[in-house]
Specification:
The complex is a heterotrimer.
Chain A lengths: L1 H28 L4 H5 L7 H10 L6 H13 L12 H36 L4 H15 L2 H15 L17 H27 L2 H8 L4 H30 L2 H6 L5 H11 L2 H29 L7
Helix pairs in contact in A: 1-13, 5-6, 5-8, 5-10, 5-13, 6-8, 7-8, 8-10, 9-10, 10-13, 12-13
Chain B lengths: L20 H5 L10 H10 L2 H18 L37 H37 L1 H16 L2 H10 L1 H5 L3 H28 L2 H8 L4 H37 L11 H7 L9 H28 L1 H4 L2
Chain C lengths: L1 H22 L15 E5 L14 H10 L4 E3 L5 E3 L2 E6 L4 E6 L13 H12 L17 H4 L12 E5 L2 E5 L7 H4 L10 H5 L1 H6 L7 E3 L5 E2 L3 E6 L14 E5 L3 H9 L5 E2 L10 H5 L4 E13 L9 H13 L3 H7 L5 E3 L25 H14 L6 E7 L5 H15 L2 E7 L2 H9 L6 E7 L5 H9 L13 H11 L4 H18 L2 E13 L3 E2 L15 E2 L1
Parallel strand pairs in C: 1-11, 15-16, 15-17
Antiparallel strand pairs in C: 2-3, 4-5, 5-7, 6-7, 8-10, 9-10, 10-11, 12-18, 13-17, 13-18, 14-18, 19-20
Classes of the chains: A mainly alpha, B mainly alpha, C alpha+beta.
Chain lengths: 308, 318, 542
């Protein structure tokens, strides 16, 4: 197992180079001239545009640009964004708040998703199961901007229970409402995955054995059924952590959280290579670590699973 | 609980030819054994859930194929601002959008694009993600690592960045249509399905029945297809059915940004995102396409549930 | 462990910021219950360091405008008022002598001298500094040399310091409205300290305006920019409050919710989803709708075959007359725009709603169909679609769709919007003259002058002339207006130039911009200026 983990860490190296190369290439291929866009609708003096291009290495061929990025990386210099701010500073600002938001959202969807999923699975086809299904459908079909807007208006403005917007220094408690909004869609996945797994395992031989042994129903459900039902749920949650961090564009916009999703989106629209590559690199790191954790959890949940 | 030990029991076993059980246990050898899939199909047909879901899906497909059967109104032809955000009127049962277009007609004509995106993006991710995930999980080792890491890279790419680039490729720019959207969603959606499939396959690959099959001389690919996959399918079906709805909404996001469908193609997603500005003044323009989307997702969730039940021999004997 | 450490650092920064703004005489005002008279207002994250010559967007522009005071400022109606300038004199509209008021200081104590202006302008114009506002100096003699590629020259020959309080400006050619431009922030003076490290200066700018930053680090990126009154300020824009704290939002929707919850005092744009409700949400006396110097149009590129010649002219007129401007402004913007009758804006001095030929901007479906049919006789349109390109991140979709529908309904042709994901992409297509249809264009005046709406957008070869329009008569009229001896004569010439535009219709003007501002229960005396920017210094706390 230890060797397996070490190997997984070593895999990060090629993935890092592959991913940064790919992302840099995509940014390089973005249509439009980002320097031109800095000037709005106005004319650009070509001399000034050339000067700016040189400043951001945009006058270099793609491979040179990528090489310069890597070279700077060695000296822990991630470059500057188009407003002249060091990208490292941007990362230090966007990630902490996004990590807090993502962790809260993940907790929310995991806790409520599993609880609702278990109950729905145990009472398959009954009222609670149906209610949960309808709720899941609403979450899937009504886009997040509507759900977020309604919750913000009701909870934040009308009831005054939470701040309508939270800002960059939002603490854990401020982020509860945004985290709920962010986690809603994933909640639907977790509920349905849990429910299905529970149903699958309800009739498994070991459950009958456990019940026959005279174990109490809650113990059978939690220790035996749940533990064996967790693999798909854990897989989903592990993959979702990264999505919650990088893809929270709408939620972050609604609650004015200047986090990773917003920043990434803006940077893509502006064509800011160094910012995009740096953020995506950190995100890939998160994916790899989350997936590693998931794989380790597999072995813990099901001792039959071994890694060579 | 201490086990009740019985050290000796007197056995009496009747000679086999004397018991009536012989007939019961007899395997009729002239009948072809049903494959797992055939048996599942036989089970499926008898489930009310499956029947309801199929009828609904059939209805939606008919609407998608022949929208003109369901409305006489040309959805894009006569949008008058004078009707903006208007309520139901004769011939316009669901009222009007902010642009004064007929909500009902747009709903009917939007079915085709939305359903195509939802179904084919789901199938595409299932095909690519499912195959790669199953191979990764079953084979393990270096193949697993390579597939999983490629998945990580794709998963971390911002969808918008990737979509802008894909739509920029000459082929896609010239032929912007529903299929370019499907391809974009598949390219960025397969890693999630792959991860779920891989996890499910890993949890099944060491099960006793797989070991049994292998020791009976079943080849590895055959064991994967015949024994592992059917038993690993449940979570994949769940994720795929939810994804179906998510893809339909994602199309709207891409279209809104100008990297999805051309503006004259109608879709539920487009209408849902266009309703954003009318959210407070006329929420019904949001509600109807969202309801259509819900019903579609519901049908596929029910279909998925029925399929899962049919594939699970233990769930069958209630 | 990693995560815990980083959040602690941010926590510390937050605590430090709190302490800072407390010394500055007002908190961030996040709870709205702050007793001191600090006003909170919305802004977006400035896209550049706060250097006047490098700030060309509203997020940073409104802050720079409060931090610096130029030679003149504009009053609410857009009329120029002398600030640092004692006098600006010229006899020929080409050579100007500028005298400064005595005892003007930057907030670091340095005096504001003639060199403060001349050095700042030279810095702004030199190509090597790559300042986004460099084109503002293009009228000054010697601009061509300093702005050329790899130029070694750093000083424009047209700028000469006479003494501490006097400098002269020579323009490349006569321009009667040149002094009017001097109120734009790009012409602000800079203290000597700025030139040592412009980047650091841009993070903590030192100016001579009505406000100053509330200490080092008062600009917390993506969070807020805290300003406090400048005690040494002697100009006409004296602050009536204890400071302005700009809260940074990425969009107006979130800011609107904060406004409703009284967490924000002033919001300068009502988001689209609340246009129909904001008056009832806020109630009487908490909002304002006022036109400002901006307009919206669709430009039809003259380089496309189907828009050339007589048929093209007829078609452009038909398109214009097929757009139901009053209905679209009423329904889509809830009255938040005014149908256009010419190419500038009503708040500009010299505006004339009845220029000859302006009936082409009136909704007239019969005439539109007639003109289109005539054009079809010359050259059939076929089943092409009329497209309007726009950037999807600018909130234009609703009105573009409405305009397209209006054209489609009246002319019976296919018409649709054509969104592009990024602004950069639209601009590249426009500047490289590769448009395939019409283009959304808009103009917001830099300084209150008719010429500013006409020259940069329709002059032959001008930088923002996206439709590649060129008409010798029009160019001559512009030159005539610029060199006119009196403002009245200039106005006449410019409006005659507009008659030519109404005939050729290189762009179809749609409507004038209207600023819709909302404010909280805690503030009073909110108004907006000629350019639509709230007059921050006037706002008081109840």
């Amino acid at each position: 197992m230890a060797w397996y983990i070490v190997r997984r860490f070593l895999q990060m190296i090629p993935v890092f180079f592959g991913a940064t190369f790919l992302v840099y290439f995509l940014v390089f291929s973005l249509p439009g001239d980002p320097i031109q866009a800095l000037f709005g609708d106005r004319a650009v003096n070509p001399a000034v545009a050339d000067q700016l291009r040189a400043q951001y290495n945009l006058d270099q061929p793609f491979l040179v640009q990528y090489f310069l990025y890597l070279k700077n990386l060695v000296t822990v210099n991630l470059g500057n964004d188009f407003s002249g701010r060091p990208v490292a500073e941007v990362l230090a600002q966007v990630f902490p708040v996004t990590i807090r938001l993502a962790i809260l959202a993940l907790l929310f969807e995991a806790v409520f998703g599993i609880i609702f999923g278990v109950i729905a699975g145990l009472r398959k086809g009954r009222f609670f199961d149906g209610t949960i299904l309808v709720a899941s459908l609403i979450v899937i079909a009504i886009p997040i901007f509507v759900l977020g807007f309604v919750m913000q208006y009701v909870v934040g403005v009308k009831l005054g229970w939470a701040k309508p917007t939270v800002g960059a220094e939002a603490g854990w408690s401020d982020l509860i409402l945004p985290a709920i909004v962010l986690g809603l869609v994933s909640l639907a996945y977790v509920i349905r995955l849990t429910r299905t797994s529970i149903i699958e395992n309800l009739n498994a031989d070991y459950v009958r054995t456990a019940t026959a042994k005279g174990l109490s129903r809650p113990r059978v459900v939690v220790v035996h059924i749940l533990r064996n039902s967790m693999i798909p749920v854990i897989t989903f949650l592990g993959a979702d952590l990264g999505a919650l961090m990088g893809g929270a564009i709408v939620t972050e916009g609604i609650f004015n959280v200047p986090g990773v999703g917003q920043r990434l989106y803006q940077s893509v629209l502006r064509g800011e290579g160094p910012t995009i590559v740096s953020i995506v690199s950190v995100l890939i790191l998160v994916y790899i670590l989350a997936n590693l954790l998931v794989d380790v959890l597999y072995a813990w949940l099901d001792p039959r699973i071994r890694y060579a | 609980m201490p086990e009740h030990r019985r050290d000796y029991i007197e056995h009496y076993v009747a000679p086999i030819e004397e018991t009536p059980l012989q007939a019961t246990d007899k395997v009729s050898e002239d009948v072809q054994p049903l494959s797992l899939w055939a048996e599942a199909w036989r089970n499926l047909r008898r489930q009310p859930l499956f029947v309801i879901a199929s009828v609904l899906i059939l209805l939606i497909v008919v609407v998608a194929l022949f929208p003109a059967l369901f409305t006489q109104t040309e959805p894009n032809a006569n949008c008058q601002l004078a009707n903006s955000d208007g309520g139901p009127a004769p011939g316009h049962p669901l009222g009007f959008t902010i642009q004064g277009c007929d909500v009902y007609a747009r709903l009917i004509y939007g079915t085709r694009a939305s359903l195509t995106v939802g179904i084919f993006a789901t199938l595409g991710t299932l095909l690519i993600g499912g195959t790669l995930g199953a191979i990764a999980g079953f084979h393990g080792g270096w193949l697993d690592s390579v597939i999983a890491r490629i998945g990580d890279v794709f998963f971390a790419l911002p969808l918008i960045l990737g979509a802008i680039i894909i739509m920029q490729l000459p082929f896609f720019r010239e032929n912007r249509n529903v299929w370019t959207v499907v391809i974009t969603l598949v390219v960025f959606g397969w890693p999630q399905v792959a991860r779920i499939t891989r996890g499910a396959v890993i949890s099944v690959r060491n099960a006793d029945f797989v070991t049994a099959a292998r020791s009976l001389g079943v080849s590895r690919p055959a064991a994967l297809v015949r024994h592992v996959i059917p038993n690993a399918l449940a979570p994949v079906i769940v994720v795929a059915t939810v994804n179906l709805g998510i893809f339909i909404v994602a199309e709207a996001t891409l279209s809104f940004l100008g990297i999805g469908l051309p503006p004259d193609v109608m879709s539920w997603g487009n209408d849902i995102s266009a309703a954003q500005v009318s959210l407070r003044s006329n929420p019904s323009t949001l509600l109807w396409p969202a309801a259509a989307l819900s019903v579609t997702v519901l049908s596929f969730i029910m279909l998925g549930d029925a399929l899962r039940d049919a594939l699970d021999p233990k769930a069958r004997k209630r | 462990m990693r995560f815990a450490r980083t959040s602690k650092i941010v926590g510390l920064a937050a605590a430090a910021a709190l302490a800072l703004s407390a010394c500055g005489g007002g908190g961030g005002g996040t709870d709205g219950a702050d007793a001191s008279a600090v006003i909170t207002a919305n802004t977006t994250e400035p896209q550049n360091p706060l250097v006047p010559t490098n700030t060309n967007e509203v997020g940073g522009g409104r802050v720079v405008d409060l931090l610096f005071e130029g030679l003149i400022s504009y009053d609410a109606s857009g009329a120029p008022v002398n600030e640092v300038a004692e006098s600006i004199e010229t006899k020929d509209s080409k050579n100007y002598t500028i005298t400064l008021k005595p005892d003007q200081k930057f907030t670091n104590g340095d005096p504001v001298t003639a060199s403060s202006f001349v050095d700042a302008w030279n810095y702004g114009a030199a190509a090597e500094n790559a300042q986004l506002n460099e084109y503002f100096f293009d009228s000054i003699a010697g601009y061509d040399e300093v702005s050329a590629k790899d130029s070694k020259k750093k000083e424009m020959s047209g700028l000469k310091v006479v003494d501490d309080k006097t400098f002269t400006v020579e323009l490349a050619q006569p321009e009667s409205d040149w002094p009017l431009r001097l109120g734009y922030t790009a012409f602000s003076p800079l203290p000597e300290a700025a030139f040592q490290d412009m980047k650091a200066f841009g993070e903590n700018p030192v100016g001579n305006g009505p406000y100053k930053l509330a200490g080092d680090g008062a600009w917390q990126h993506d969070v807020e920019i805290a300003l406090v009154p400048n005690p040494d300020y002697t100009g006409t824009r004296a602050p009536q409050n204890d400071g302005i704290t700009f809260k940074i939002y990425s969009g107006f929707e979130a800011a609107y919710q904060d406004l409703l919850a009284n967490n924000l005092d002033l919001l300068d744009t009502i988001p689209p989803s609340s246009l129909k409700n904001f008056k009832t949400d806020l109630g009487e006396g908490r909002y304002l709708e006022k036109p400002y110097a901006g307009n919206q149009a669709i430009t039809i590129p003259g380089y496309l075959d189907e828009w050339k010649g007589e048929a093209g002219e007829l078609r452009r007129k038909a398109i214009s007359m097929a757009i139901n401007r009053p209905e679209i402004t009423k329904v889509i913007f809830s009255g938040g725009r005014e149908p256009a009758t010419e190419f500038t804006a009503p708040v500009i001095d010299g505006y004339d709603a009845d220029i000859k030929g302006s009936e082409v901007l009136k909704f007239n479906p019969e005439e539109a169909r007639k003109l289109w049919a005539e054009a079809d006789k010359i050259e059939p349109w076929g089943d092409k679609a009329f497209t309007i390109s726009y950037n999807s991140d600018g909130g234009h979709k609703e009105w573009i769709d409405a305009v397209a529908n209006s054209i489609k309904n009246e002319l019976g042709i296919d018409a649709q919007g054509k969104p592009y994901a990024t602004f950069a992409e639209v601009r590249e297509i426009a500047t490289s003259k590769q448009l395939e249809g019409a283009l959304r264009t808009g103009w917001q005046a830099d300084y209150p002058s008719l010429y500013n709406f006409l020259g940069p957008t329709f002059g032959t070869g001008a930088g923002s002339n996206d439709g590649d329009y060129s008409n010798k008569e029009f160019d001559a009229k512009l030159r005539e207006g610029l060199s006119a001896k009196s403002p009245e004569a200039g106005t006449t010439a410019f409006n005659e130039a507009q008659e030519i535009l109404l005939q050729d219709l290189p762009a179809v003007p749609l409507w004038y911009q209207v600023r819709q501002v909302g404010w909280s229960e805690n503030v009073d005396k909110v108004d907006t200026a000629w350019n639509g920017v709230p007059i921050y210094h006037q706002i008081t706390r109840k």
